[in-house]
Design brief:
Layout (H helix, E strand, L loop, with lengths): L1 H25 L3 E5 L2 E3 L5 E9 L4 E3 L12 E4 L4 E7 L4 E3 L8 E5 L1 E10 L6 E11 L1 E2 L8 E11 L1
Parallel strand pairs: 2-12
Antiparallel strand pairs: 1-3, 3-9, 4-8, 4-11, 5-10, 6-9, 7-8, 10-12
Length: about 160
Amino acid sequence: MSKISSNFLPPLSRLLFLVPALLAAQTDLLTVSTQPVTAKKAEPFVAKLNVQLKPGLHANTNKPNDELLIPLKLTIDKGGFDVVKIDYPAGKNEKYSFSDQPLNVYSGAFQIGVTLRAQPGTAPGLAMAGGKLRYQACSETMCFPPKTVDVRIAVDLR
């Protein structure tokens, strides 16, 4: 019996070692990336956020069809830059088995444009505009808890 259990333990211990990594990988539902932006100090500039949901998932748009649903929302931190406007893409109305009405959702890859302006007194040079993107990802059968992703936009202010 001890020989069987000693042969069984190494594979089991390797499997247990992987469990935290597997759980962490399951939380990666959405990614956000940006390209550095060059801007003139007193002029508005547009930064593009490239958002990617994992295949098979969707998230409500910034204006869901039902007020009880959690919208996708971008916020920019105070400090260095003011938000002029945020341009969310149009969503798609899709029908899911759990809802009587179609839902306005994002899926796959999409872009959010954010127009920013440097605040007076912001020094020229390299700066970072920070913010957060809040969303709730869902599949055909379940919704994950709402999450917030940090957003960083590198700005070369001239």
